[in-house]
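Sequence in, structure out. Go.
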Amino acid sequence: MFRSVGKEFLCKVRYQNPLPSVPFPPKLLPIPPTYVDPSVGSYSQARLQHYVQYRHSTLEEATPYPLMVDADYGMPIDPCLLGAFDDKAMAPQELDPQDEFLLHLPTTDARDSAEQGTDTGTPNTRKAARTLGLKRTSSGAKRTFDHSLQGQLQAIDNSFKYFDKFASEQELLQSLKHPTNSQLQAVESIPLFPDESLWPSNYALFSLDTCPEPDYAKKSQPDEHREMGEKARESMLFLSQAGTNNLGEDETWCEVFLPETNEMAEHVSAQLRESDLDDTEHRLKMVCEYDAQNDPIKQKHLMITIGEGDDGSKVAKYVQFKGKILLKRSKVPRSSRNYNTVDEFKELTNIGLQLRDLTEAEHLMRTQKLQELQAPDSTQHDSETSP
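Output:
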């Protein structure tokens, strides 16, 4: 017999709204065999008749929960095909015996050459499958590289054989193509060699998330603001700091110093371009702090310098960066924290720079490495000069 919804309620139900979602998952509560009677203070047997079984009402049965699915969030769920998301449905299907030949690398025969010579205008499915398999196999092949000293020297020697393919430098320049702009054409080639004089020094690559700006340029116009910032950053100075926070953890950060006024920045910019100006005392002010995060992964970036060689021609030399440091601007200054720093600078007036001499250990290491690199050339030279 059919019964109407909401017959047992005192008030008449006018609207059937969907029930809200459950704020938390269901939880099973164990029923203790005994309980404490607060009036008596003793343990008694649990009265199970106080616990009643929950039953759904007719209103709740007639108002199901809606299934909200948003396909834009990667949820293309079809309620009629929910079995497709079971574990058994995700298992790989067996390959049809007719398609097993696609797993093997086909061999070239006379039929392939005949098919290449005659183009009928209709696509050949079998030929396309074999060609696609060959392309995937060739691109997925792994190349091995000998990382030993002799292997690296041999790889460098093989790279110089690339120039033997061209009769002149003009032909070499015409063969070079820009990866993104096909209209650009190479006009000059400069040989690139490792820099033996700078490789003992450790160079690091610094990356900043935000560019530091001077305080006096914040209220200026956009064009003036950009020009003032560029001149001020020509004399920018980074000062490395290390300390211990209130949790006992060691941290490292960098403080950035810029000129106090625009006149100081312009004078320093002119001094960098002209050497006959008088020395003037400049005051640098700390404007911001950056949290330093060292990246220990081996870097692929190179520092390249272009100069003149012994014969007067242009020569480019490179040095590999030993590390990379990411500088993220600190939202909370260190002055508001409890840091135990050795030196605290707020203003800098005197800066002295000088070259550091190599230690005996560095001299010895440099000599040994140069002998290893020059050993194959010296051995070949001795074999040629020996009678």
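Check: The helical segments are 58-62, 110-117, 125-139, 149-160, 169-175, 222-233, 262-273, 360-385. Residues 360-385 form the longest helix (26 residues).
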